[in-house]
Amino acid sequence: MPTFEHFQQLKNHIPLPADKQQIGACLACSYWDADDVRRDQSQVARVAVCLHPDLVEFSLIVSGGSGCSRWAEEPAAGAEARAYVEQYEAP
């Protein structure tokens, strides 16, 4: 199971701290270094480096289906990436 989907399911069962509630998928994140691909659900398993300024020193390799609370929306990701994110967002 991709971690993004897992985080969203977890939020339904265990209250997360307020600063951890906004969890986004790497597929639609501006820090996911996969600019050479179209961001749609077919890229959920694709891996790329996380370029978040606070995390880049760790050289994290994450999939499009990964997620975290330091997510920032990539406007160019498009509607298909947003649709992936929305299907798992907790109500």
In terms of topology, how is this protein built?
Blueprint: H1 3-13, E1 24-25, E2 47-49, E3 61-63, E4 67-68, H2 79-88
Antiparallel strand pairs: 1-4, 2-3
Structure description:
- This protein has 91 residues and is of the alpha+beta class.
- It has a single domain, classed as High-Potential Iron-Sulfur Protein, Chain A (Irregular).
- The protein is 23% helix and 11% strand.
- The chain contains 2 helices and 4 strands.
- The strands form 2 sheets. The protein has a two-stranded antiparallel ribbon. The protein has a two-stranded antiparallel ribbon with strand order 2-3.
- It is globular, with a radius of gyration of 12 Å.
- The protein starts with a helix and ends with a helix.
What proportion strand? 5-15%
CATH class: Few Secondary Structures
Termini, distance in Å? 19 Å
Shape: globular
Gyration radius from CA atoms, angstroms: 12 Å
Adjacency order of strands in the biggest sheet: 1-4
CATH architecture: Irregular
Q: What string gives the helices and strands in order?
A: HEEEEH
Quickly count the domains: 1
For the largest beta-sheet, the strand count, sense and barrel status come to: 2 strands, antiparallel
Count of DSSP strands: 4
> Which blocks of ≥5 consecutive residues have pLDDT under 50?
none
Helix share bin: 10-25%
* Average pLDDT number: 84
By secondary-structure content and strand pairing, the structural class works out as alpha+beta
Tally of DSSP helical segments: 2
The name of the CATH topology is High-Potential Iron-Sulfur Protein, Chain A
